[in-house]
């Protein structure tokens, strides 16, 4: 009787072991099948997406003249060089930290929300980056401000030059003359498609819209339109007035705050006489890394007797703005707008 029980027990143990082994093999097979299915799904999704054709641009060798161009991307770029700080920050918001292999032009305040990811990106140059360093980073694509796609010491190389080296390009639509604030949504949408992060792009567009709505709501309903002018530097009696005529993206963005670029239609350099004649309500003093301290420039502006009649100086309406927030042609303009709204419209 005991022998039969023992035999039965051993039989059960053996059967259980065989069953467990079979289950383990089944689970392994199922896991491998699941991985294979996922990879197959990803490959199928990529096949369905690419080749992807987007409306974009080429630019002249000096980075000044833009030409519309359809660009076809045969596959998802896996390594990215951002030719300026703000572009890299935008790509980080879209979840592309692991794809960024280089950044340049660190000329302003960074976005604290993505500072940790930004710190991990190799800095090719703290100033504008040349073609040699860009190519040396071996990127699949260069993304960023259009004016920097130039065949010059400070340029990344032209679109055609980079394409000939099998390096793809994407010029921010916002950086092209004629752009409006809506082109920020175009860039976010295009980059979402190009890098297969459509959901992140859609979510970030909603964040942009919410912030813009808050900014416009902060402007009093009875606020009159205020004229402004950019001051890129002031030292002694020398004042560098910048027209911003080509920066239509910035001009349109600030129009949401009832601010009007008084030199939006100007050509050539802006003289002191032209500034005095225009007499803008607001002066925007540009601060950029490596430049003169804005408080020193402000002191010289206020001490300049030739400018003493300007309304902006008499009414203490000289406001410092950050280079990265404005001239990265990205979402950072919203931070600049928020700061200006607080400075101009807040009730003391």
UniProtKB/TrEMBL annotation:
User: What Pfam families does the entry give?
Assistant: Peripla_BP_2
Q: Does the keyword Signal apply?
A: yes
Tell me where in this chain the Fe/B12 periplasmic-binding domain is found.
79-348
Q: In the record, which residues are listed under signal peptide?
A: 1-22
Name the keywords, alphabetized.
Answer: Signal
Q: Specify the protein name.
A: Iron complex transport system substrate-binding protein
What family is it from? Belongs to the bacterial solute-binding protein 8 family.
Supply the InterPro entries for this chain: ABC_Transporter_SBP, ABC_transptr_periplasmic_BD
Organism, scientific name: Alkalibacterium subtropicum
């Amino acid at each position: 009787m005991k022998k039969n029980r023992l035999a039965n027990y051993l039989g059960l143990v053996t059967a259980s072991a065989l069953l467990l082994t079979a289950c383990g093999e089944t689970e392994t097979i199922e896991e491998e099948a699941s991985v294979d299915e996922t990879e197959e799904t990803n490959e199928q999704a990529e096949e369905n997406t690419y080749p992807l054709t987007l409306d974009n641009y080429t630019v002249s060798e000096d980075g000044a003249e833009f030409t519309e161009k359809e660009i076809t991307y045969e596959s998802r770029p896996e390594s990215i060089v951002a030719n300026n700080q703000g572009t890299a920050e935008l790509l980080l918001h879209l979840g592309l930290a692991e794809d960024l292999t280089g950044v340049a032009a660190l000329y302003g305040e960074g976005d604290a929300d993505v500072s940790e990811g930004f710190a991990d990106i190799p800095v090719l140059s703290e100033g504008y980056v040349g073609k040699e360093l860009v190519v040396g980073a071996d990127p699949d694509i260069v993304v960023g401000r259009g004016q920097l796609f130039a065949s010059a010491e400070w340029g990344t190389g032209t679109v055609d030059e980079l394409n000939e080296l099998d390096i793809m390009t994407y010029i921010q639509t916002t950086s092209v003359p004629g752009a409006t604030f809506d082109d920020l949504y175009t860039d976010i949408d295009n980059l979402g498609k190009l890098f297969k992060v459509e959901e992140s792009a859609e979510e970030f567009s909603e964040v942009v819209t919410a912030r813009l709505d808050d900014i416009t709501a902060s402007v009093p309903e009875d606020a009159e339109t205020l004229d402004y002018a950019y001051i890129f530097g002031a030292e002694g009696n020398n004042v560098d007035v910048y027209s911003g005529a080509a920066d239509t993206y910035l001009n349109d963005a600030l129009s949401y705050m009832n601010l009007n670029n008084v030199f939006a239609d100007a050509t050539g350099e802006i003289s002191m006489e032209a500034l005095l004649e225009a007499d803008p309500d607001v002066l925007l003093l540009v601060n950029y890394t490596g430049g003169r301290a804005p408080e020193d420039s402000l002191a010289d502006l206020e001490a300049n007797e030739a400018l003493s009649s300007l309304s902006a100086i008499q009414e203490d309406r000289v406001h410092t703005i950050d280079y990265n927030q404005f001239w990265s042609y990205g979402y950072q303009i919203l931070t600049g707008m928020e700061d200006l709204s607080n400075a101009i419209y807040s009730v003391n």
